[in-house]
Amino acid sequence: MRRIVQICAFVAASSAAVIVGLVATRRVDAQQASPPGCRDADGDGYGTGCQNGPDCNDRDRSINPGQAETCNGRDDDCNALVDDSPECSPPPIDKTPVHVGAARFLMGSAKGQGAADEHPQHAVRVSGFHLDRTEITNARYQACVQAGRCKAPVLTGSHLRNNYYENPAFADYPVVFVDHERAQQFCSYAGGRLPTEAEWELAARGPEPSARTYPWGNDAPDCTKANLGGPGSCVDDTDRVGRRPAGASPSGALDMAGNVWEWTADYYDAHYYEKSPPVDPTGPKDGTLRVMRGGCWLSGADSLRVSCRKAELPSTWAYNVGFRCAYPEGR
Known about the structure:
This protein folds into 2 domains: 61-90, no CATH class; 91-331, Alpha-Beta Complex (paralog of FGE (formylglycine-generating enzyme)), CATH 3.90.1580.10. Helices cover 15% and strands 11% of the residues. It contains 4 helices and 9 strands, in the order H-E-E-E-E-H-H-H-E-E-E-E-E. It has helices at 13-33, 138-146, 180-189, 197-205, and strands at 98-100, 103-107, 122-126, 129-131, 261-267, 290-293, 310-312, 321-322, 326-328. The chain is globular. It starts with 12 loop residues before the first helix and ends with a strand. Residues 1-7 and 9-32 have low confidence and may be disordered.
């Protein structure tokens, strides 16, 4: 299995004193309770070889198996589930595709920004189409497999969950371990196709004069907007699609940043933007690599940018790779 590398060539003073003292005491107690081989980077008493047990995010002391789950888009208690508390009600999933009207937009990154393969920034006009509002879920993909139109995912677990693809608890989570061929098979079964890079970026960025960095705008990503990684990671795995409406793109598409990398139809050429046609570009005619977009649950903020491009062999499958489909405007 190829693992995806995450790069994109981007109270009174006295009361306060008591609180500080309590925190310091807890840190000392946690360290004293841990065996000599305990590796606890954030000082919360959990970590590799520690008496309290392992820590799913040893960079953030507010996330560990001893924490209570709160409604914040994060896996506070390290059980690989987000906001799994009776007080947290996830928004309903709208299964209808979004409509992306014909529009002109500036594709790529402005001079001095982004990676080399995002240049030059250029004007593109894209015809109207529909796009899946969310990434393709386990439940939707299973229907295609049961109909004999799709190959099953290469593996049926996820990063932290051995029982994932066929587990009803994860029916509304993105299907993973799908290569480019599997993604194409499903989209054909659903009456669509994989989106082109230009279509994907228009749906994520919005039409001119939009100059947004992320689907929701220019504010830095956090767990209310995207399932991302890095120091402020939300869950060390996939999450239920559509959980974060605050991260919606101008078209209304959800999870365009984070959760799973998404296959597009285009072959990859680092210099394609230098010769891209101005209307409905479909990428190079051939190549050895295909383009992914959107970043994933492992990604830092740079990979979540709407202009970020990732090249991978079409045979690639991993626990952070999925897709969504595009459909004709008149369907």
